[in-house]
C-alpha cells in the first residue's frame, strides 16, 4: 500500500507483483498456440495462412506477397507453388505487365483463408467466457498497458543542441 493510504479502510491490498503478473500473461499467451491450430486444422504454417488472408483482400503479384510476408521473392514463389498444388490459389497474367503474374484465391482458398482468420483472431474460450464486467476491466487494463506511461521512470536523454552552441560537425548550424 502507499503510505498515504495507510489507515484508510477503503485502501486496496497490495496487488500481485508485476513480475508474477508478467509471467502469468506470458504463460497464458504461450498456451494459445495458434500455429499448432493452423497446422492441425488446415495443414498450414503461419506464413502461408497470413498470405491467404492477405490474398482474400484481392489478387497480388508475387513481389507483393514477398513484401507482405517479409520473405525473399524465391521463398514467396515456393510458397505460392505449394498453395497452388493444394488448389488454394491460381496464377494468371497481370493485366498491365505480361512479365508479372497475379496470384488470387480459388473458392477453396477463400474458405481456407476465412478459417485461418478465425483461428488467428478468435479469442480463447477462457477469455470469451469472462463476465462482461471482467472483460470491461481487462479492456481498461490492456488499454493502460498499451499506452505510454504518464510518469516514465526512464526518460530519453535530451536531444542534442543544434545551432550556435553545438560543436562543429554535430548537426546543422
From TrEMBL:
<feature type="region of interest" description="Disordered">
    <location>
        <begin position="145"/>
        <end position="173"/>
    </location>
</feature>
<dbReference type="Pfam" id="PF01047">
    <property type="entry name" value="MarR"/>
</dbReference>
<dbReference type="GO" id="GO:0003677">
    <property type="term" value="F:DNA binding"/>
</dbReference>
<feature type="compositionally biased region" description="Pro residues">
    <location>
        <begin position="149"/>
        <end position="160"/>
    </location>
</feature>
<dbReference type="InterPro" id="IPR036388">
    <property type="entry name" value="WH-like_DNA-bd_sf"/>
</dbReference>
<keyword id="KW-0238">DNA-binding</keyword>
<protein>
    <submittedName>
        <fullName>DNA-binding transcriptional regulator, MarR family</fullName>
    </submittedName>
</protein>
<feature type="domain" description="HTH marR-type">
    <location>
        <begin position="18"/>
        <end position="147"/>
    </location>
</feature>
<dbReference type="GO" id="GO:0003700">
    <property type="term" value="F:DNA-binding transcription factor activity"/>
</dbReference>
<dbReference type="GO" id="GO:0006950">
    <property type="term" value="P:response to stress"/>
</dbReference>
<dbReference type="InterPro" id="IPR011991">
    <property type="entry name" value="ArsR-like_HTH"/>
</dbReference>
<dbReference type="InterPro" id="IPR000835">
    <property type="entry name" value="HTH_MarR-typ"/>
</dbReference>
<dbReference type="InterPro" id="IPR036390">
    <property type="entry name" value="WH_DNA-bd_sf"/>
</dbReference>
<dbReference type="InterPro" id="IPR039422">
    <property type="entry name" value="MarR/SlyA-like"/>
</dbReference>
